[in-house]
Amino acid sequence: MISMKYKEILIRKYNYIIGYIGVILLGLSIALLLPLIFLFIFGEESILVRSFLIPAVFSALLGFIMSTPIRKGNNDSHLTLHEGGVIVVLSWLMVTFISAFPFLLSGELNFTQALFESVSGWTTTGLSVVDESEIANTLIFWRSLMQYLGGAGIAVTLLAAIIGPSGGMGLYSAEGRSDKLLPNVFKSIKLIIIIYLGYTFSGIILYMIVGMPWFDSIIHSFSALSTGGFSSRPESIGAFDSLAIELVTIILMILGTTNFAAHHVFLRGKIKEFFKIGEIKFMFILMGITIPVVIFVALFPLYGNFAESLRFGTFELISSITTTGYSTGVDYDSWGSFAVFVIIVLMIFGGGAGSTAGGVKLIRIYVLFKSVVWHIQEHFLPKNIVRENYILKPGEKFYVYQRHITQFANFLLLYLATYILGVLIFLAHGFQLEDSMFEFASTLGTVGLSVGLTSPDAPLFILWTQIFGMLLGRLELYIIFFAFIRIIKDIKQLVLK
């Protein structure tokens, strides 16, 4: 039995949770109108007005109704991480559902394909079931805009700023952002947006300087920085066959996969401190080891040319570890199993925590590697020595205790179990083991590289498996599980007599 007072508190809490989701839907309605700007440029696509206007109006009306508690009352409740997780999970589900309708109403895709494209966009995965040469430019922009907004979790982070310090931190953390750039959540979010916008405009300008058309520059700057990987061309970056464009893309991919707090350190001119950050150091060590090894073991014998091997190998492996998914159009089948296996491992490792990247996250892998080293070192130290182990995070030492190692190991185990389940589903549909491992590593890591299994003709169950895989990978497994457990428990509490 629970008291009536507790039920009232719970009901009031969920009223505000619904209200916050409503605010996000109001923001989505504005985002849905932005692609219509391009109709003034691409006039022949004016038929798409209704494809965006209908879901925009629907999102605005639904958001207005749901946000009533926020507009009519002052929220004095504190949002915990679990409650923030409920908002994040439910809002992502609603946003991806509504965002699929421009593809559906345009007649380009069926419902499953439209939802797949929407989820791939918002989760910054970049796997696609459309042919960019046949789809309207307005829809191409919408895909990249979804990645751009989803990459930094702008909808949720902005809402965290609106809520303020009382509940914003729970929502901020639920979105996967544990590092605060500044002591105040609002100021941290403001700085994230400033950094994000600054890099975006710089990317557009750099792309145009090196010869990319203006529309493609916008698309690729949005998607490279968000580590999304959607392109305006079917051949991805390979369509331009330009070393300069590839170098700009590499810079943007690395910026996108770097923790925003680390950006703050770098932009303040603390270069040495930046490269001492454990996650950053580990990322460059991985690149420094895997790129030369893959080049000499797999690519040089294939291309017979060191320059080409270096160019293609560097781009593809950086695209993998940053979880961007851009490609120069290489044939992975010709690369051999060794190179493909390295790419799979890098896609699973993923990018930086608190960035736009997916995967397990480098900080977890780094701590687990360090824990092995610390364990070995303990055997050579005097027994009476007490040592505190730590890694360097942006602006601070992060002391690593056994509970952290356990948490990271548990997450990795859960991630790998989910990965294995996804691979088994691919195998059950008759796909080869290596291809299945590659495709689902790309799906769960929200990468976007593909060996061709993702297509409009893919079995429906495969596409739905990937939809769930992308959501699990972007929102992180614990947040989703905790959110649904919280919802189920709260429902049970409310129905108790």
Structure keywords:
mainly alpha, two-stranded antiparallel sheet, Cat_transpt, cell membrane, transmembrane helix, transmembrane, monoatomic cation transmembrane transporter activity
The overall pLDDT, averaged over residues, is 88
Q: Which residue ranges are poorly predicted, with pLDDT under 50 across at least 5 consecutive positions?
A: 161-172
The largest beta-sheet arranges its strands as 1-2
How many DSSP-defined strands? Answer: 2
| Strand coverage percent | under 5%
Outline of the structure:
With 497 residues, this protein is mostly helical. It contains 23 helices and two strands.
List the helices and strands and how they pair.
Elements: H1 4-33, H2 49-66, H3 68-72, H4 81-99, H5 101-105, H6 111-122, H7 137-151, H8 154-163, H9 168-174, H10 185-209, H11 214-225, H12 243-256, H13 260-267, H14 271-276, H15 278-303, H16 306-321, H17 332-335, H18 337-349, H19 362-378, E1 390-393, E2 396-399, H20 402-428, H21 433-444, H22 460-475, H23 477-495
Antiparallel strand pairs: 1-2
Describe the structure.
The protein has 497 residues and is an all-alpha fold. The chain contains 23 helices and two strands. Strand 1 and strand 2 form a beta hairpin. It is globular, with a radius of gyration of 23 Å. About 2% of the residues have low confidence.
